[in-house]
């Protein structure tokens, strides 16, 4: 039962995210690029609304309850930026600036019928593979 | 001024952003998870590649829900399509999608997240590291888009 609920919530959460990206036209790479060239700053409202809502949720909910509705601990974000992660962020931004795609909109845009995004998704999988192979080499 | 900065208005941006936020909030409230999108692309390789990096517990333990979450993104787009809602065609050249995609995948994984993980979840967590990464990719994204535009490779 718990697994079913968790599955359903995760699928619905993803679908809300994907539908919201579509509604906000963020699945269209040209719109994202028009933000980066300051021709239409709408992306700020998309990010602002999504982040603002979750600022309330992430900050308040763990103070009100110890665990999520399904009894799991709330994930925290122990992430600390270092030189490598900032380089990663910089490279991510270069890719974002080249094609106006990010991982979420690539998935949602595919669902909305833009099959060209399969190319971007293949690229993202290759990039993630290269990262993993490089991490493997570093640790040996 | 408003029309110059937001030639398509702001209401669909706000509504879309709130729907995105509701998705992230739902996942957190019900399962306690922070819903970044990009780890999915590493976690999925764990089904195929049996090396230590791809078999690390963080990827193995999360790959199932990340797959469901990613399928949800596709489903959300499919529902939008199925409802016959307005959508303009995109004509991004394949070479840009391929080249950009590799940078995005490699960079997001090296950087520990993308626009959803660092952008929404990280900033909502008030994590200084995430905010630094967001500033970084905003800066290089803007610089790259302007460079491409000035070279005549823009949209």
Largest sheet of chain B: none
Mean of residue pLDDT values of chain A: 97
Helix content of chain A: over 70%
- Kindly estimate the percentage of residues of chain B that lie in beta strands according to DSSP: under 5%
- N→C terminal distance of chain B: 23 Å
Low-confidence stretches of chain B: none
Count of alpha and pi helical runs of chain A: 6
Sequence of secondary-structure elements of chain B: HHHHHHH
Question: What is the tally of beta strands of chain A?
Answer: 0
Assembly of the depicted chains: heterodimer
Strand content range of chain A: under 5%
Helices and strands of chain A, in order, run as: HHHHHH
Distance between the termini of chain A: 43 Å
Contiguous helical run count of chain B: 7
Give the structural class of chain A: mainly alpha
Q: What's the total count of β strands of chain B?
A: 0
Structural Rg of chain A: 18 Å
Shape of chain B: globular
- The proportion of residues forming helix of chain B, as a percent range, comes to 55-70%
List strands and helices in order, with pairings.
The complex is a heterodimer of chains A (140) and B (155).
Chain A: H1 2-23, H2 29-36, H3 43-64, H4 83-99, H5 103-111, H6 117-138
Helix pairs in contact in A: 1-5, 2-4, 5-6
Chain B: H1 2-5, H2 11-31, H3 39-43, H4 57-82, H5 94-111, H6 115-124, H7 128-150
